[in-house]
Design goal:
The chain is of the alpha/beta class. It is built from seven helices and nine strands. α2 runs antiparallel to α3. 39% of the residues are buried. Bound molecules: S-adenosyl-L-homocysteine. The site of S-adenosyl-L-homocysteine has 23 residues, from β2, α5 and β4.
Length: 237
């Protein structure tokens, strides 16, 4: 009787998995490190369950450069090339929580970088639009998000102009330090929406500012936290 091919194929796959024990061990180590990272974020006061759950699930080690893999879950920013960084996990959590993210919310991100922040928002179920100034980073983030199964639109453009034909956004998150709050972003925020943005000079003081857009064009801004981000640049490259 003719043998079916599938069982033999399965045997080969099982043999491969059994013979490469390091693979499973590494995955388990990353998971442990990720849980410890979220414990630390919780200890620092982040409470939003959607944010914490997303950060327990999104594999941050997939978003860092290979040479920094062992530090993927430390509470610090890491270089991602082109002079840019993936933000510190606590800051990602803090900024995400401030947006009060919910499934179905339309969120605009300025500064895609590695795509990690976009993945956290996509995991929560937000509809994510993300803008990146550096073409190579936009391309690699788009590929990475696709490969890992996160749905986010990534555009190579200057975020100062926002996403003009994107309608209005429930929330906007800017992950590079701006010299001022870009008027286009305020315009594209819906009434009742929230924007979180680091504002300040490159080498001096920067503050994370929460902008709340109320009725009649009334804007309320609040300083939340002193921070240090890479600068928001002008002119795509
Ligand atoms: N959110 C990212 C980290 C952002 S680092 C992550 O999760 O990995 C800041 C990013 O903003 C960099 O990738 C930088 O290239 C980008 N950037 C700087 N100025 C910008 C601008 N005007 N428009 C869009 N992106 C910008």
């Amino acid at each position: 009787m003719k043998q079916r091919a599938t069982p033999r194929f399965l045997l080969l796959v099982s043999a491969f998995v059994v013979c490469t024990p390091g693979w499973g061990q590494e995955a388990a180590r990353f998971t442990r490190q990720r849980m410890a990272m979220v414990d630390l974020i919780t200890a620092h006061g982040v409470r939003d369950s959607a944010t914490l759950d997303a950060m327990r699930k999104v594999p941050r080690h997939e978003f860092v450069a290979p040479e920094t893999l062992t530090r993927a879950y430390g509470d610090h920013p890491l270089p991602i090339g082109y002079g840019q960084t993936i933000s510190q996990p606590y800051i990602v959590a803090f900024m995400t929580e401030v947006l009060r993210p919910k499934p179905g919310m339309r969120v605009l991100e300025v500064g895609t970088g590695s795509g990690y922040q976009a993945a956290v928002l996509a995991h929560i179920g937000c509809e994510v639009f993300s803008i990146e100034l550096i073409g190579a980073l936009a391309t690699s983030a788009r590929d990475r998000l696709d490969r890992l199964g996160y749905t986010a639109e990534v555009r190579h453009a200057d975020g100062h102009h926002g996403w003009p034909e994107g309608g209005s956004f429930d929330a906007i998150i800017v992950t590079a330090a701006a010299g001022y709050i870009p008027p286009a972003l305020v315009e594209q925020l819906r009434t009742g929406g929230r924007m979180i943005i680091p504002v300040g000079s490159v080498y001096g003081v920067q503050n994370l500012i929460l902008v709340e857009k109320r009725g009649d064009g009334d804007l309320r801004t609040r300083n939340l936290l002193p921070v240090r981000f890479v600068p928001m640049l002008s002119g795509i490259r």
